Amino acid sequence: MKQSLHADVAGLNGSRIDVRRQWAEVEHFRLKENWMNLGKTDVQTIREVISPLITNDTDEVDARQLDYDLVNVELALGYPQYNAQRSRKAVMRKAELLVEKKANIPMVKEKLPLLRRVINPDFWKHAGLADLERVRLELRSIMKFAKREHREYRFINILDQVTKVGEPIDAPLPQVSYQQRVIDYLKQHSDHEVFRKIRHLEPLSEADITSLERILWYELGTKEEYERCVAEKQRICGDRVAAFIRSQVGVDREVALRRYAQFLNDHAMSEAQQELLESIITYISENGDITAQTLMSVPPFNDTGRLLSVFGDDLANLTDYINELHRVIS
């Protein structure tokens, strides 16, 4: 999916007005390396900025809308804070329409078994990335049939009662969650020096930590809101604000791999070591921190036999590396 989305972004027409308006984001995601380790702010940018541009870039509007909806569902698999319920229901509605109204079309008839699975709510409870990709790829070609033949309109004439000219309406303003305030702030201040340090695994000073506490506990909300957010998301960072920010912005994967290479004694990593190390880097990006104790208690890292077989004599180097990643934000 990442490769497909990257290809779509790379193919966006730079002369389009809507693309030019979002050029900074488009240019960022045209670089393949920026898809390697997506942070939560990246995911939101893809969802809110990039996906609509891709959806409007072709005549296959119906197929692209399916892409957009299923991208949302797939993102929600890795980032549960993103609610994909609306997209999921949209796909189910289209599948239901095809089964009930368009089953006589040969192309649709061929896909009926899969369509019936998609309509079943139990499918969505257990669907993984491979299942969703199969749905996306197999159903794209028949989305053009997922349209109602006509729409019936009913008009009701309701007279509004004017109470008093200029009288204000007492309506509550929509509330923005603390988590959303944090995400919005990080998007608007992505070049903040402390955030850059966190992404690049550079040690933070006491002044840096104090700056983060001021932002999270005073500017964006209260410490109580921060603590509720941490508890609701079951984050391991606690009051360690740098770890919380790292769980939002992630880490630079290339920097993290180079940092580990410094712990090796002039020999290269094996393919198995790099694969497991990248899983550790992903865990850090999503959870903000890791310790040797965490490593031994969280799947798939809690398989001590596997760690020993993969790292062997380098296991001590891995432990030192993990301690270093913990230290730079402590």
TrEMBL record:
Residues 177-328 form the EcoEI R protein C-terminal domain. GO terms for molecular function: catalytic activity; DNA binding. GO terms for biological process: DNA modification. This is Type I restriction-modification system, R subunit. It comes from gut metagenome.
